[in-house]
């Protein structure tokens, strides 16, 4: 492509869409590149109740993102569906390449987000989509009136476990510690839910079955005892949902942009990375809280910083 954009935004989650909105309102030429569906992780969240000022009772991730997408497009953000595999970020014009095209921009906002961390047990890859899942919203209906297990103890794990109770007859949370890490308000709801049970101090070591998930081995990390959990004979299977954290989507930038030991991009409070004209926003960067509201704020800050730099430029 011959056009040189004022800013290219990588990712169309809350951070990327907020960046596109703010950049567009500043009359900057902006291109948003997204390889999958808009929204990132929030697109698979069934219910949102902590986004400030939300106007819809029982707001879902997809409905919130749909409005964000429409806002960004209203203010002129162009869109491309593509996967960036190679970047050249030095100099006045940044170059981003995919297998099918090349994109140029004076500034880049990296808002590529993060993806679910695997459970880490034997057989996990073989049974993905056959009983192992990382998205309750996507797959809960497949387990209506079945038993399911949720691995994790943070906000996402407990919230998704509560969502799964709408479908499954019983949900068991498996957590490697003896207490949850989720916010107290979320814990309180889970403990009151009669469909939720807990397996404390435990990790999943292996899953298996005859083509579909029918058994798993769970180890108590304190006693070393291994318990085999088997599917009910009438059900013939059960589900395991993993919610144990995220891994940043940073591949094209490894060895180019400064990152922490886990691969999250380092920025200052104004979203600047170590490379001039390159910013990072949302879940892909080092931060203490990864929520929709903080991602959107990151995107807005990054876009405003671009606008200010462009004002200096001209």
Q: How do the helices and strands line up, and which of them pair or pack?
A:
Blueprint lengths: L3 E2 L1 E4 L3 H12 L4 E5 L26 H14 L3 E4 L4 E3 L5 E4 L4 E4 L2 E3 L3 E3 L15 E2 L2 H4 L7 E5 L3 H10 L5 E5 L9 H9 L3 E4 L2 E7 L6 E6 L5 E5 L8 E4 L3 E3 L29 E3 L11 H22 L1
Parallel strand pairs: 1-7, 2-3, 2-8, 3-4, 8-19, 10-17, 11-12, 11-17, 12-13
Antiparallel strand pairs: 5-6, 6-7, 9-18, 14-15, 15-16
Quick summary:
This protein has 314 residues and is of the alpha/beta class. The protein has helices spanning 14-25, 61-74, 136-139, 155-164, 184-192, 292-313, and strands spanning 4-5, 7-10, 30-34, 78-81, 86-88, 94-97, 102-105, 108-110, 114-116, 132-133, 147-151, 170-174, 196-199, 202-208, 215-220, 226-230, 239-242, 246-248, 278-280. It has 6 helices and 19 strands.
């Amino acid at each position: 492509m011959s056009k040189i954009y004022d800013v290219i935004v990588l990712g169309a989650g809350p951070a990327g869409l907020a960046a596109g909105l703010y950049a567009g309102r500043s009359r900057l030429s902006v291109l948003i590149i997204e390889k999958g569906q808009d929204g990132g992780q929030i697109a698979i969240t069934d219910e949102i109740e902590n986004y400030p000022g939300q106007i819809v009772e029982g707001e879902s991730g997809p409905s919130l993102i749909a409005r964000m997408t429409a806002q960004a497009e209203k203010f002129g953000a162009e869109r491309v569906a593509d996967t960036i595999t190679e970047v050249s970020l030095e100099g006045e014009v940044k170059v981003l390449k995919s297998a099918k095209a090349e994109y140029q921009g004076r500034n880049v906002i990296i808002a590529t987000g993060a993806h679910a961390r695997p459970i880490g047990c034997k057989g996990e890859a073989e049974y993905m989509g056959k009983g192992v899942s990382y998205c309750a919203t996507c797959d809960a209906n497949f387990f209506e009136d079945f038993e399911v297990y949720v691995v994790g103890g943070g906000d996402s794990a407990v919230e998704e476990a509560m969502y799964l109770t709408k479908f499954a007859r019983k949900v068991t949370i498996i957590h490697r510690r003896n207490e949850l890490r989720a916010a107290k308000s979320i814990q309180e709801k889970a403990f009151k839910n009669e469909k939720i049970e807990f397996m404390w101090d435990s990790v999943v070591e292996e899953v298996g079955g005859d083509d579909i998930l029918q058994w798993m081995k769970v180890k108590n990390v304190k006693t070393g005892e291994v318990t085999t959990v088997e599917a009910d004979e009438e059900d013939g299977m059960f589900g395991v949902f993993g919610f144990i954290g995220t891994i940043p989507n940073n591949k094209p930038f490894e060895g180019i942009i400064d990152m922490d030991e886990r691969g999250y991009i380092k920025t200052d409070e104004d979203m600047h990375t170590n490379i001039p004209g390159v910013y990072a926003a949302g879940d892909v960067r080092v931060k203490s809280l990864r929520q929709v509201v903080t991602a959107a704020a990151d995107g807005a800050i990054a876009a405003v910083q671009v606008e200010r730099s462009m004002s200096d430029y001209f």
